[in-house]
Amino acid sequence: MTVLSVLIAAVLPLASAEAQRDKEEELIFRGLQYAEGIRNFKRRYARYPNSLKEMYTFRPRTLRKLWKDPITDSDDWGLITQTTGAPPQGPPVTGPGSPPPGGTGLAPPPTPTPAPTPSFGAPLGSAGVPVGPILGVYSKSKKKAYKIYQDHDVYFDWRFTEASLQGAGYTAALPPPVPPGPGVPMTPPPQTPSQ
Question: Cα separation of 29 and 122, whole Å?
């Protein structure tokens, strides 16, 4: 019985650490999903979303589902917002296959929700949380992580924005090239004219 309890005591911390590492990987995945949803929303509607729910409820969706923070097991994400001025918006993308100005033609473009402005500081919502265009998300947990992400080892410092998509090697809308094989035609090499 003593040997069994010693083995259990030795294995429990290892299992706990492995479970925490799995949660860290899930946090990165979900954070990048939100960052990609924000990027797609900005491309489609020419503005940043005013809430995470907006990316899921507007049709066509730019977010597959509303994810929980796996570290805190909560829907309450920290929001990276731009509370001063209008969100930076580039010129509309035009060209073959791009949506018409103002959306895709499938649904009217959403109108921004005005943010209340208190007498002091940045605009705040009813819970005292800044509101405005959402640029990204982060976990509210201030625990130390096993993994170092973006040179930080505290979950609170892991930021998921459009910029983090580039750092993660995360690209969207481009499928990987298909290598030649059975059933896949191989493109012949260009031939040089013979003289």
Answer: 30
Closest by CA position to 143, among listed 69, 71, 80, 77: 71
CA 29 – CA 113 distance, rounded (Å)? 28
- State pTM to two decimals: 0.59
Q: What is the pLDDT of residues 48-94, one digit of tens each?
A: 999 999 999 999 999 999 999 999 999 999 999 976 333 344 434 44
Distances (CA, A) of 89 to 29, 41, 112, 124: 26, 12, 14, 23
Q: What is the pLDDT of residues 10-28, one digit of tens each?
A: 766 767 788 899 999 999 9
Q: Quick one: which of 64, 58, 65 has its CA closest to 104?
A: 58
